[in-house]
Amino acid sequence: MDRSSTLGVTQELAEFVASFEKGKLPSEVRHQVARSLVNWAGCAVGGSAHPALVKAMDAFKPFLGSGHASVLGRAERVDALHAALFNGISSHVLDFDDTHHATLVHPSGPVFSALLALSEFVPIDGDTFVTAIALGIEVECRIALGVCPAHYDIGWHVTGTVGGFGAATAVGYALKLNAQQMAWAYGIAATQAAGLREVFGTMCKSLHPGRAAQSGLSAALMAKQGFTSSERVLEAPRGFAHVMSVNPHLSDSLVDLGTRWVVMDNAFKPYACGLVIHPVIDGCISLHKKLGARTASIEKVHLRVNPLVLELTGKTEPRTGLEGKFSVYHSAAVVLIDGLSTSKHYTDTVVNRTDVVALRPKVSAEVDRSVAVDEAFLSITLNDGTTITQHVEHALGSLQKPMSDADINFKFLDLTAEKFSKEKSQQVLEQCWRVSQLANAGDLGAILRRE
Amino acid sequence: MDRSSTLGVTQELAEFVASFEKGKLPSEVRHQVARSLVNWAGCAVGGSAHPALVKAMDAFKPFLGSGHASVLGRAERVDALHAALFNGISSHVLDFDDTHHATLVHPSGPVFSALLALSEFVPIDGDTFVTAIALGIEVECRIALGVCPAHYDIGWHVTGTVGGFGAATAVGYALKLNAQQMAWAYGIAATQAAGLREVFGTMCKSLHPGRAAQSGLSAALMAKQGFTSSERVLEAPRGFAHVMSVNPHLSDSLVDLGTRWVVMDNAFKPYACGLVIHPVIDGCISLHKKLGARTASIEKVHLRVNPLVLELTGKTEPRTGLEGKFSVYHSAAVVLIDGLSTSKHYTDTVVNRTDVVALRPKVSAEVDRSVAVDEAFLSITLNDGTTITQHVEHALGSLQKPMSDADINFKFLDLTAEKFSKEKSQQVLEQCWRVSQLANAGDLGAILRRE
């Protein structure tokens, strides 16, 4: 396949999406989309009472349009553009959503938030819905592959920047955009692409997938009306890749388009914090078991980790739950004491708990480029001089050690426990798994609301 | 004043805005804000039937909120967030709005579009309105000064990227944000800042001030609810300036803040196309007068211009009105024939007019770094060998040769002629000039609608 020699990358992607026949989507890709849906919906319901969402909803309350679309886990119904924004926020605010490891994109937030909101207004059959999501994640992650890691290193939150392309793809496919309209949608999405890593640790981080969902949905809606844009926005000398990255390699990232599906590399997180902390948490769970009652006599804890761990989660003195998600020290301390990690371990209360605050300064971390991002070496010294070590080769949730469907169900039930009855959670789960067979995938919105 | 040694630039700007006493705004600044209002409102009404606006409104029609705010020049009333978007689009779509020459920012679109929309929902007295606009333009242009020209050279449309800071400032001042909330608003605006020059020549260009208005308005509304963000988003190592520019010089750009007002450098355009073409148009108007009936015997036209002219407006064969705005060749040809330049000279029809298309290829252009951006040297050779030259030292609308208030009124009446009756246009003009004295500046929205 050498389409890139005649078409630009933007048009190649647009042609691919516009001409894709949904029958050609492999069954394992369908299954992976369903896994992604369950994970995304659980995260959105779990984050639906978070102050970041509540404040955003309060800010926009006087300006909302008529209620075609659901805010997951809540009673409100709002216009689809704002539903996309709000569900994008709630699905990311716990830092518990999915990750494409190669690029650090969180693919589901922008894509599902946009398409589900639209499908409550324009019915979309389950088969088309699943195909549209697969295409959205595909385009989003492949564009990210073409500009990362430089793009992320510069300071861009790649979920915010490429998320709009994913959302535009999913919505554009469902709305049957032709290739030219799809290329325009990419132009419109690109010229709204934004999100700075500088705001990590504040409510703005979760704004990024929300805005990406809203911008991508907007882009597809506008392109369908004939709102024009560049038709080569990805690769042009002043286009997305060159302006927002260094030495991009977009063409390479399209190799095997349509035969290998990037969504298969989508990984789910068992723990509600930065992915790079996961191997440390796995190690601390194991060490907690080995320690038993001796947790109280820890003198020091030493971590040897990939450099990204301290770059992304190096906060030594977190004061809030949100900051706790960016502190490997907090995670290590609280998991060594409690022996497990749930979303409740990243609340203001737990971050300031006396025993956690006391153990935290005893944790030191050393970076080592030879340690993989899903790997960690831990060493604990007790007051009596005893040393206990632990090596985590691949963290749970990594591609080598993925969460099972049962793990994902467990996570969904945990995240929705405070919002839905057990019966309702089970019902919702069943509907999510059979998304491909639904006459209108938009019906999922209604059942994911809180009555 | 050495506040920057103790406060970061973000907080310095936030403190400045939050603590500004409106009585301290100089009268010449008030007058310049009124000039900017007349110019902005005229452009928005003039652009209100443009396909770019119509298509955007059609795309979002099912999702609009209740109608507190006016779409200028039209009958519709929509929610304030979308009014900000729509008026931002229409005010820029003719490429006829104001320009801060030092940075190429078009300051009014984001700022007026956001604040007028809000003031139709939350009444804002005229004095506060004018002060908020002055502060908005001040912050927007000073941030641009701190990152340009590198920011623009990289490929960012600076009006799209800094416009959100301006809109957030104006709205934040009117909503009485404290300094911390104002800093958050800058963080929220920064992490939504976007707009690529790659989309110039398409409908997306005018989307930029629209989205900037909407994003800035959103940012201030969210910050007021306590939606948190970075408090040093402008200057942080991974903040706006470092990620989106090279060697930024933010601190320098704050010198004389509060004593010298950048809005005084705001310039208005007499012609509905790229500013860099203006000296060529002035020259062609003069040459048309000199030529008289000899226009038909032009053999060749030679332009010697600043390099930016060909970089920004070098399209040799424009096919649409929009593309015509980016073709110095079209402008030279049509003005030599018609002897004047109005918004009607950038329609599909005129760009494809037989006499214009015939003269266009006879126009050649040479770039010369020693020629200023508001300067041009023109030379015409006739069939009989006669040569006629023209040197334009400063184009009309430059800081050295600004449009008078009467010029701006003439432009407003021209732009609104197809939408309003003469009487209505005169009434609206009067209300705009006395904006400072209005009990609610939001009343301007209603009178700028089309009945």
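qc> Chain B touches chain A through 59 residues (CB under 8 Å).
qc> done
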